[in-house]
Amino acid sequence: MISRFLPHPVRRLLGVSASLRPSTYQLIDQPGPLAPLLAALGRVDEVSLDTEADNMFHYRVRVCLLQFLIGKDVYLVDALAPIDLKPLWETLARKHLVMHGSDFDLRLLHDRCGFRARSLFDTMLAAQLLGRKRIGLAGLLEEHFGVKLDKDSQKANWSKRPLTPKLLDYAALDVWHLPALRDLLTRDLARLGRLEWLDQQCRAQIEAGTEGFAPAGENDWRIGKSEKLRGRGLGVMHAIWHWREQLAQRLDTPPFKVCSNELLLRIAYAADAEGADDSILEGVNLGKRHPRIFPSLAEAVRAGLARDPRTLPRRPGRDPNHTPLTQAEVERLDRIKADRDRIAADLKIESTLIANRAQLVQIARAPAQLDSFLLPWQAGLLRGIPSLRT
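Above: the chain sequence. Below: its structure as tokens.
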């Protein structure tokens, strides 16, 4: 376990008082020092938590670093180190969490670690319910504490070892201000009578986290405007999308770093032209890997051109329970949307926080089932609107 002081240049950059910065943090990258962290968790009911992942650098996203603020102590846990974290997850599952923008973190921790939160205060959700213009952590910390987070560290390769002092300092600051930020947002939510709204949102966030990430499907290759492709363009799209996935997995890199969706679509659209052959790849640039991977791309294009599009996976059939809206339902949808927008404007929050497009369609189709589509606070705002009575 390494105890580290924040360097003086970082303190000067932040321009904050001693009470607004962690003086030390403890890095746990060996099995033994996990015991003090578990002991500290046993003495508290609430923990501030953040994670860092490597979704910009590897094919399969991993949890790389865990940041905890327990009382006044910051612990950084190297999640890639040879440490059995099962006792940590079991203990953490009994604590109340303070997090910011927890949706991805909760899905990742459930998907990779089997973790489910007991209860949560999400400072991003709180900022949204207050109608704040800036809801990102960097914006909120700058607004309330004068802290400027290093944006370069947000995009760093958190799977690279050893982690630099600069990254560790950044990670420690990510959780240090969460309790104070929570207290400020709680005060404003209480003044507006919206604390119950946040509680419902956070409970829903926890439930959504247990769903993890959507599993791979046979129609994932239908990206962007691929629905406009016909004939051989569809075959090529299917072939080169799977080429990219297989290559990205072999190289252990995100698919977008092999080539962009835009390039895949450009090649597929060119393949739709009459008489197209693998010459459609002329001028295609795959960057520094070009000489090594271009031949396999050309092979995938040839396979796609030769494939009968009728053999491709079929689109999912229309759900018989979701037929197109009738004209009367379309008109009701427009009225409900107008009422929702008016209410949101009065509350000074984003209208989609009350109900998104998909939810509005469900309500227009079955107004009497309003409570099954929305959280109680959302349904309460809409229940009395005139458009639901007509």
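Residues 22 and 41 are 18 Å apart (CA to CA).
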